Amino acid sequence: MGNSSVQEPVYIAAAGSENSSTSLITTVERVYSDPDKPKRKRWHLFKWLNPGVLLPLAAGVIFLLLWEYQLFHKLFDLKKYQLPLPSAIWEAMRENYSLLLSYTGYTLTEAVAGMLIGSACGFLIALAATAWPRWGGGSLTLVAALNAVPIVALAPIMNLWFGDGIGSRAAIVTATTMAAMAINAYKGMSAVDPLALDLMHSYAAGKPAVFRYLRIQNSLPYIFTALKINATSSMIGAIVGEFFFSSRGLGYLLSNSIKVAKMPLGWSCIVLAAIAGVIFYLAVERLEKVFIRWHSSQRS
After folding, report:
1. What is the pTM assigned to this prediction?
2. Residues 291, 293, 297, CA angle at the centre, nearest 5°?
């Protein structure tokens, strides 16, 4: 590297540069500058004009305009107190933004904590079911049975066990997110290429090595699929849990707003819950692109 950086200015000077060393440096920088950089900048700008981005944005704007001009009220014979206008919802959000932001952060904390615990438990169950199919296989059935229990039944039980704090909602989210991770991770660990498994056995690789270098690697796309499912379902679990026993959070505020007929504020909670769910999902999707960029699904 050092030799090439010294030789290049000499070559350029011999080619006819008449200026001082300063001009040589400038010329060298021009030579080493990336000729495709302006094209990439333009490409980044054009990415926002991609039909995959523009079409959903246009559809959303048209939907909001139709809503604002009361087309849905006329179609379904709804009153404004039943379906507040977007302008009224925006006004409620503007007037209560500090309260809404605080409660959104509280609900998001419950959702993230519960999802992390539930996903970790689901992964360990999948690991045990793959390593010891005879003893661990039944755990998948138990997790699926737990996932079939309605949240409205889990909420009072978790409240009795963990109190009315953040722990009870995190426990509800844990119970609702465990099954997706366990089933997906088990699928990824068990559906390995037989030739790759034979290769590991030919090298006399033990069970820990097979898990570390083959089964867990193969399960990563399945794990991120489960995390993306859990990112949205965890928000549902946290908000429904707050409906029953809570003194804070979007579910608590939504429930109270409906009771006192403050529908614009209630719809503000719904909008913020949807935005928080989308941000949570996009964060997991971004992590997927970072950690499994080698996978064929990330190369397009």
Report:
1. 0.75
2. 120
